Amino acid sequence: MIPLAVDATPLQVTWFILIAVLWIGYLVLEGFDYGVGMLIPFLGRNETEKRVIVNTIGPVWDGNEVWLLTAGGATFAAFPGWYATLFSGLYIPLFLILFGLIIRGVSFEYRAKRPETHWRRAFDRMACIGSFLVPLLFGVAFANFVIGLPVEMSTVNPSLHVVTTGTLGLLSPFGLLGGVVLVVLFLFHGANYLALKTKGEVHARARSFSLKVGVLAILGGAVFLLWSNLAYGTGVIGWLLMLLAAAGLVVSWLMGRAGRDGWAFIATAATILFVAVGIFVRMFPAMGFDNTAVPGTPLDITTASSSELTLTIMAVAAGIFVPIVLAYTAWAYWVNRRRISEVNIPTDAPEPAAV
Fold first, then answer.
1. Percentage with pLDDT > 70 across the chain
2. Is the pLDDT assigned to residue 154 strictly greater than 80?
3. Maximum Cα–Cα distance for the chain, whole Å?
């Protein structure tokens, strides 16, 4: 990615920041959902324990996904050039992400529809696979945004840009590392959330797993952050965010070891926040694209933007509805703030039939 001299308007910069905020909210909130989804088949030893694990995210997982939908809609409306260029060459990765989201959502909605053991195990595996596939692909994608996706002018329409790399081109060592690290980080985040939200055997297993996967998150995160800043750094800001993210991982592990589940969860959330902020700082103003091969008009927040009128209307709508969404989200978490265990699962609920 090459430096760009950008004469962006305040609204264009504001909407880039707002889209970054939406993505950060999605990664922080849905991050523990993905971690919990991956852990359902492994930390739940019987149906009651698996129901405890599912119930920790049951009231919030679909609401957390709204952040992704809003981020995609805001990108389409505020920066249609950004949206269109991503879809020009990344259909397969985006289709796989959609597939992972679908099977994950279906698994939560349908696992309790029938009592047979094989039925529920199948949907638990679907939840695990979907919760693994989505962060893996997003991690690869964001790592490639750090590198800069190569683009060039379209031969069909010279006013449009297209991504020139294919799906296999995304799977560079750095891209794969980004995917694996995000999966491990979400596992750490999800285990901390389970430890915070449960009691009894599930809590003990979640805390034990968190301490183990936390070591991998610290080591993998250190490699990714150092590589990112040494090869594609953004100067002092990048190094500061890297140190804050690394500190968050270490603090989370230490707090988990001390039994401070709340602080451990907050620290992993802060880590995700600092890493995501660093990525979006790197993406500004070229939005994660490498314009080296683009003669004339590069792709950045000015050339990919909607009109000022559109951005103004969107700003008014956001000013009205975003506080409402935040208030509802805070209320939902407050209502479901207590820990749960096997004793909270109704005893009159039929156990699954063995097959």
1. 94
2. no
3. 70
pLDDT at 347: 62
- The tens digit of pLDDT for each residue in 312-327 reads 999 999 999 889 888 9
The model carries a pTM of: 0.92
CA atoms of 60 and 29, how far apart (whole Å): 9
Backbone region of residue 150 per phi and psi (left: phi > 0; alpha: psi in -120 to 50; beta: other values): beta
Which tens digit of pLDDT belongs to each residue from 65-116? Answer: 989 999 999 999 999 999 989 888 788 899 999 999 999 999 998 988 888 8
Please state, as a whole number, how many other Cβ atoms lie within 10 Å of the Cβ of residue 341.
16
Distance, in Å, from the CA atom of 243 to the CA atom of 249, rounded to the nearest integer, reads: 10
Nearest to 261 by CA among 335, 199, 217, 201: 199
Look at residue 31 in the predicted model and tell me its pLDDT: 95
Phi, psi of 162 (to 5 degrees): -135, 145
If phi > 0 it is left, if psi is from -120 to 50 it is alpha, else beta; for residue 288 that is: left
Domain boundaries, the chain: 10-334
Task: Report CA-CA distances (Å) from 287 to 9, 120, 142, 298.
Answer: 15, 42, 11, 11
* Nearest residue to 172 (alpha-carbon basis) of 149, 189, 190: 149
**Which structure tokens are listed for 71?**
């981020």
The residue whose two tokens read 């009159």 is 348
The letter for the amino acid at 241 is L
**Distance set, CA 348 to CA 11, 158, 185, 345, 351 (Å):** 56, 66, 37, 9, 9
- What is the 3-class SS of 21-56, one letter each residue? HHHHHHHHHHHHHHHHHHHHHHHCCCHHHHHHHHHH
Of 34, 16, 17, which is closest to residue 82 (Cα–Cα)? Answer: 16
The helix (run of H) or strand (run of E) holding residue 276 is helix 261-283
